[in-house]
Every structure is written in C-alpha cells, then in structure tokens.
Write a structure and sequence with these properties.
13 helices; globular; 10-stranded mixed sheet; alpha/beta; 445 residues; Rossmann fold; 20% strand; disordered N terminus; 6-stranded parallel sheet
C-alpha cells in the first residue's frame, strides 16, 4: 500500500514491525506449538550454511531439502548434514520443485541477489513462508512486487538483517527514540571490508553438475565464467549490487531504522575503481548521500575496499549524530554513546554483556533472527517479525538508489510515494530490468 509507505517505519516498534496490517483471512497452514515445521534452504554455498544451522537450532524445525543449481555444492552440503545431524536430506537442483513440494512449510533463501525477490514471490504463491537473505531485492521494482506478494498471499516474510533481533541494537534504537543523544539528524553507514583483486579468468565451459540456466534465472545470461560462480557475482551489475548492496544492507537498514525515515527525495553518489585492474564492474570506493528535506535529516554512506582507518573504532557499522551526542553501533550486536562537546562516555551495551549478566534479554544473531521468524510463522502473525518484508524492500531500495545515482552520474530527485524518479527517464530505466522467459517477476494484481 504505497500511500502508507512513509509512515511504515514511524509506526514500527523497537522489537517488531507493528505497522503491517495482517489480513483477516488466516491460512490453513497454522502451526501448534509442537507441530514440526519442514524447511528448505535455497542456495547452500555461502550464507546458506548459516541458514541450515540457524533453522536446525530451532525447536521442532527440520531442514528437509537443500537446493542449489550446483549439485556439487548441494551434495557436499547433504553429506555434511548427514554427518552433523545424523539425518538424510533431499537434494534438489531446481527451486521450482521445492515450491511444488506440499511438505515444505518454509523456504530460506540464500541465493545470489538476482534470485531473491522472485524466490520470495514464488514461495508466497505456493503458500510457503520465507526468510530471505539481504538484500531483499536486486532492483526497486521487484522489491515492491515482493511486498505486494507477501500481502496478497498472506505470507510471513523475514529479511535476513539479524541486527534487528539484537537486544543491544534494539536498546540503542530506543535510546534514540527517547532523546538520549538529542534530536538525531544524521546517520552514517560504514562498510570498510577488504575486497581484493579478483582478476579476470575469462570464459570457460560450464562445469559438470552446474545448471547454469537455473543459476542465471531472471538475469541476463552471459557466457560462463568463474568470475561469477560462486561469489564474485557480487561485483557484477546483472547479478549483484556491490558492497553497499551486500554487507551494506545491514547498515542501510539501521540508518533508516535509527533515523525513523523511509526513502529519500535527493540522492547523489560518487566513487570508482582505484586499486585493482580486475573485472569488477561495481565501484571499489563509493560515497552516497541521501537527503530528507521534509524531515531535515541526512544519511551518509561509505564503502571502502582495502586497508583503511576506523571511525570511532568501527569498520562495519553505523554512527548516529544528535544535538546532544553520538551513538555508535559496532557490527551487529553492540553500541556506545558519547555525550556533549567533551565526548563523555554514556550508556553502552552488547548482546554478550546482557547474556553474561543473567538478564533474559532474548537472543541476537542469526539464531535469534531465525527464532523470531519461526515464532511469527507458528503464530501466523507478521507483526511479530523484527525484519518484515517492507523493511527488506526499503533498506535494499536505499542501496539501489545510491547505485543508480553513481551509474547515472547525477544528483537525482526521487518520489518515495510513486517510487519513481522525477522527470528522469534514464534513471527510471534502472528501477527494473528485462526478465528472461520462465523467470519473469510477475505483476501482483
């Protein structure tokens, strides 16, 4: 519902979505407290390994299917699964077979970015709930379709930004809501990660065991190269979104959550490749600025690829600026504050310290985020979600806007209500893409 988009985050609670209105029709797929939930993990090369353990660590949840277009990887994970859990798991190469399997209740999506939204939409259409790795979308249009699908088919969709389930980060957000550092007017997102030279391996035959057509899915099908499969797709526009759309989604999400804003109206970005003469298409260094004139707030976001200084001791995290002090979030699970012009240390917190104190503050991290997802699935209540589908769309869209500003070389004006640029057809073309037959992201009507 586009008219309520800007108010979504403002109505959010610290620990949950709050603002999404659940449909009155309840799915027949409602679980009792002791009913087993059968899960499938889509994409098991990298982050999918954490999805497997995160689900298996939940009470009465069983990973039943591992799915990957590379059967070499899928079979390897199945062997590891058997050794670790003493159970046999089904291996699938085509995620459409997973969607057709009536025994699967939830899917956990750790595919490359270009598959995320379509996987969620297909899951919703198949009556399954979904946990989707960040970013929720590869472009802004398909992110909105993902939101619409979750609403239309009444499904539970959690975004894999586990810091939203961190008790320490939740406490930090509440401090800002309560005015602890004064009026918060700026957020800074930091992604300083070592990203080395990936070279240029050129084209090669598709290795045996990989269904490259399935791997490519909705994206343009290029000649096969090891520079795409299995991780370096992050650095190619057709499949990834650079580091602002990789690690950076945790930080774009927290910037918006902490500032209590939706999408901006003014965006500019500048950067480039300064270190490596390799085949990466995305910038190694990227600085983006997102302006909210109506709210009188601003987001600054910076990506750096190699040896660099820290900021307030942080290499990956966020800094919030208020008129009484600053609040620093380091990584996913701890924060510090500094007050006044003399930078007096203020309140701080970490998930580890909270747990060590014996206070029951809940669990952060991947397991805690999956626990939150499973609780919402069992209750069939999307208001319980810490990272609901709308936030997946918005935090991903913020990264996409910065990338579009960089690629067009313009200061862009954006309409958050229509989710289109103002009088800029060139930029509008980058809001979506042409999809290949059999892998089209559908309109949701």
């Amino acid at each position: 519902m586009k008219s309520s988009r800007r108010e979504f985050l403002k109505k959010s609670t610290v620990t949950g979505a709050g603002a999404i209105i659940a449909p009155t029709v309840i799915s027949s797929n409602v679980f009792g407290a002791n009913d087993r939930i059968n899960a499938a993990v889509l994409g098991v090369n990298g982050r999918g390994k954490s999805h497997i353990s995160g689900l298996m660590n939940q009470k009465n949840v069983q990973v039943a299917i591992l799915c990957d277009p590379d059967l070499n990887i899928a079979n390897k994970r199945a062997g590891e699964f058997k050794e670790k859990y003493g159970k046999t798991v089904i291996v699938e190469q085509d995620l459409r077979n997973v969607m057709d399997n009536k025994d699967i209740d939830v899917v956990s999506i750790a595919t490359p970015n270009h598959w995320h939204s379509l996987s969620v939409i297909w899951a919703c259409q198949a009556g399954k709930d979904a946990y989707v790795e960040k970013p929720g979308s590869h472009n802004i249009w398909e992110g909105r379709k993902m939101v619409e699908a979750a609403e239309k088919y009444d499904r539970i969709v959690q975004h894999g930004v586990q810091l939203r389930s961190s008790p320490a980060v939740q406490e930090a957000i509440q401090l800002m809501r309560d005015g602890y550092i004064g009026r918060v007017y700026m957020a800074r997102g930091l992604v300083f990660r070592e990203r080395g030279d990936i070279g240029n391996k050129g084209f090669s035959p598709v290795p045996e065991g990989i269904n490259y057509d399935l791997w490519t899915g909705p994206a343009p099908k290029r000649p096969f190269t090891e520079n795409l499969v299995h991780y370096n797709w992050h650095w190619h526009w057709d499949y990834g979104n650079g580091d602002v759309g990789n690690q950076g989604i945790h930080e774009t999400d927290l910037c918006m959550w902490g500032l209590d804003v939706g999408l901006p109206t003014k965006i500019t970005s500048m950067g480039g490749k300064f270190l490596w003469d390799d085949c990466k298409e995305v910038p190694e260094v990227l600085t983006s600025v997102y302006h909210y004139p109506e709210e009188n707030k601003i987001i600054q976001f910076e990506v750096r690829p190699w040896h660099t200084n820290t900021e307030e001791g942080v290499t990956v995290g966020n800094i919030f600026y208020g008129d009484k002090g600053i609040l620093v979030v380091d990584g996913y699970s701890e924060y510090k504050t500094y007050l006044g012009k003399d930078r007096e240390p203020g309140k701080s917190g970490s998930d580890g310290a909270m747990q060590a104190s014996g206070i029951d503050r809940g669990a952060g991290g991947t397991d805690g985020h999956f626990a939150n997802f499973i609780a919402a699935v069992r209750a069939h209540d999307k208001t319980l979600l810490n990272g609901p589908v709308e936030t997946a769309h918005l935090s991903s869209a913020l990264a996409h806007l910065g990338n579009i500003a960089y690629r067009t070389g313009k200061v862009l004006t954006f309409n958050p209500d229509s989710e289109r640029f103002v009088n800029d057809p060139e930029a509008d073309l980058m809001l979506t893409r042409n999809y290949r037959n059999s892998y089209v992201v559908p309109k949701i009507v």
